[in-house]
Design brief:
By secondary structure, the chain is an alpha/beta fold. The chain contains 17 helices and 19 strands. The longest helix has 28 residues. The structure holds zinc ion (ZN). Zinc ion (ZN) binds next to loops.
Length: 523
Amino acid sequence: MPTTLMIALDGATHTILDPLMDDGTMPFFKQLRDGGARGVLKSTDHPLTPPAFTTMITGRSPGRHGLLDFIKGEDDGEQVFFTLYDARDNRCETIWAIANRLNRKVMALNFVMSTPVAPVCGYIVPGMTHWKHLRRHMHPPEFFEKLKAQPWFDPKVMCWDFDHMEKAISAKPEMAPSEWVRDHIARERQWFQVMRFLMKKDPADLMAIVFDGVDKVQHVCWDLMDPATRPAHPDAEQQETLALIRQYFSELDGFVRELVELAGPRAQTFIVSDHGFGPFIYTVRLNQFLHEQGLLFWKDGEAADAEGLNLDWSRTVAYCPTQSSNGIFIRVAGNGRPGIAPERYDEVRNGLIAKLRELRDPENGQPVVKDILLKEKHFAGPGGRLAPDLTLVLVDHGFVNTSPGARIVERKPQVKGTHYPDGVFLAHGAGIRKGANVPTLAMVDVAPTILHSLGLPIPSNFEGRAAVEAFEAEWLAENPIEKGPPAREETDSPATAPAAAEAASEDAKKEVYEQLRALGYIE
Ligand SMILES: [Zn+2]
């Protein structure tokens, strides 16, 4: 039976990886690229980690699967309440579950939004989980004891550390970028060792892992990594950070080499990213814009709440809940609820679109809004219920800012990194074409490609296609694309969560909020 290795690099982009392959930092990736197939993998319309990864592993767009952001706001009419999205919000069957019911064993390590964890034949170790909750959030739970018996295993290093995160928050940067990179080197070593341990002791048919340090390092250190902004004469701290970034990618190259070798010569390896990366130039204060339009009101004299918002819900009729959403929610009145009159919805929304398109770079007068996504078009489907009415695509693909401020649009004092649509697709191994350039793929194409690699039929309700250009003609002749029955999709309750799942505890929520704040997803 064929073995498939799926290595997801959160936020990986060809513009960063290619030079590292060519300058000798990532010699094994160079082998994979030159001896395999390569292409651009486009992210979801809004290139954010939770929706993009969920699309990657379900083959369905966000309007179908319903996992749209890190934080979910629900309007009870009086005010908006915030909770964390989790695996229960995903309405569509994952490739782990699909492969399982077709008798394939799986392992999935460090994927976000995996909790509460769904039992599978194989292993799931969730990403973005506090180390204190790791034991009860992994499957099977007893696997934690096996890991604990390993001398190298340290859950505090593998998971994000709360105290460390607080230091890294950009508003009070007590943690130097070099320390940030060093932490992520140590984290990736942990995840790599878990994967290697499993591949040696109990391999599966589909073996998948996320290395998310790529995203984290690029968020904080983009200005050093991009030749356009790299300082000509880096100071001592910058030199140290640059050396550690090189070490990070060099170690990642070694990890992937060892995993590919362990998978054996008959395996197929796919390297994919949930989105690309690029320079983050503008601060766009979206709630300040809505305030100036007379649609949003701040609460007087009160500290911001946990989400970083400080809104008077009795008067606010349009708001942006999270920086990561890039979205505007419009509240529609009814039954005594605050909001705009239903018959004015189109007029208000069209007015906002026109005004947003007028927002300009104060220095060169160029528009800063590249596109505006409509809920009914870009989040069509039952999973789009909680999507924003409008989602902004900025010219720098940056996330918006939710805080008040004197100016709506400003250039950031220092260029940071942010998510861009063009991510990475590399394929290598038995039956994979050598030196092939694959046409641009969509995120919905990953799941059918992985299932096809496993020798499984592609569910009829999948929205994408297998990346046939990545496979050799002879291999495809022996392994033709097969269509199968539809994958499960829930009409009411999500597919993947166990019935007894519990809500995230307050400290787990606080932990995630600190992570999101450090990365600029919330204020
Ligand atoms: Zn990501």
